[in-house]
Write a structure and sequence with these properties.
The protein has 10 helices and 16 strands. It is an alpha+beta fold. The protein has a 7-stranded mixed sheet, with helices on one face. The longest helix is centred in the last third of the chain and has 17 residues. It is globular.
């Protein structure tokens, strides 16, 4: 008996400025999935429209009641699994996962709670501190709260980083070196989110660590050293090549083992699944966690595919492993 192939929708796009990167990531996954095992389809989710991309790039609207598509011959297309590769909202912050859970649609990556939690930098670091994972000293502010510049500088020193609490892509982040620049920096961050973090500056090497669960085991794909040509790893550095990325990072074995151990511990203690990329600053051999991304960039230029290549896992196997886990979910 010939097993029928499973249908997999590669779901890309999103509601934030990161949708451009997501479309590139989606294309790589679409191209890489094994056609002997799966029928692969493209689904794009944007603010204004959710659609399935058919032959000759014809758009078919997604029925949101059950995430199905009605084709020209009135045939209904349902997906056995959705490969979620949306960066930012709604695919990286739990909104899409909660909807899929509600309608009984299987999907790749982590669950609703892990997505929502890790998209919130403050809450992630608070949870991980309970597991002995260090982070920078920080102050949290909500929009409309009184900002006492002197108190902040006294507590954190200078320079500081001002960041939106929930935002991908390093949008709205500033490095503040002078007291007089702090208020303006908070205004930039508040444009992206109603909650912001002001963090003490950690003077060390930034590393980006890919962690996945592959064939039942949590593995560190690689540790990439980020050498920014700009002041820090900002949007331009991330997506327009204004940084050098060195894999593996130039660190000694003892530090490497410590980074691997802490990265795995963070992943496992949050109950993660699927792709993840955590950012750390290494200072005096200690990794301080900045954030965890649960749907990191996966375009050919992105860090995770580069790490997989060096680790020796093909993109086809990496993506196939995700689909198999999704299909086996209860």
């Amino acid at each position: 008996m010939v097993m029928s192939k499973k249908s997999v929708a590669v779901v890309m796009g999103g509601y934030s400025d990161e949708y451009v990167v997501s479309l590139k990531s989606g294309q790589l996954i679409y191209d890489s999935l094994d056609r002997n095992l799966y029928d692969v389809y493209k689904v794009v989710i944007l603010k204004d429209e959710w659609y399935f991309l058919g032959e000759n790039d014809k758009k078919y609207e997604i029925n949101r009641g059950d995430f199905s598509v009605t084709l020209d011959n009135n045939e209904k297309l349902k997906f056995d699994a959705c490969f979620n590769i949306i960066h930012g909202t709604p695919g990286e912050n739990g909104i899409l996962q909660a909807y899929w859970d509600a309608i009984g649609q299987k999907y790749t990556g982590c669950d609703f709670y892990q997505s929502a939690l890790t998209f919130n930098k403050k809450d992630t670091l608070a949870v991980l501190s309970k597991y002995g994972i260090p982070s920078a000293k920080s102050i949290y502010l909500r929009k409309g709260e009184n900002i006492n510049v002197d108190e902040i500088v006294e507590s954190l020193g200078l320079p500081v980083f001002v960041k939106p609490n929930q935002s991908g892509s390093s949008l709205g982040i500033s490095k503040v070196k002078e007291k007089s620049e702090l208020i303006a920096a908070t205004e930039i961050a508040f444009k992206e989110d109603d909650e912001i973090l002001i963090e003490s500056f950690l003077d060390g090497m930034e590393v980006s660590v890919g962690v996945i669960d592959f064939k039942g085991e949590t593995i560190v794909l690689g540790i990439t050293e980020i050498v920014p040509t700009n002041e820090f790893f900002d949007y331009e550095a991330k997506y327009e090549g204004a940084s050098e990325e060195i894999t593996p990072a130039r660190i000694d074995d003892a530090t490497r083992i410590r980074v691997e151990e802490i990265s795995k511990r963070a992943y496992n203690s949050l109950g993660m699944s699927g792709f993840s990329r955590s950012e750390f600053i290494l200072m005096d051999g200690i990794p301080y966690m900045l954030e965890m991304n649960t749907n990191p960039g996966f375009s050919p230029a992105s860090i995770l595919p580069q790490q997989a290549k060096i680790y020796g896992i093909s993109i086809t196997d990496l993506c196939g492993n995700e689909v198999e886990k999704a299909l086996n979910k209860k």
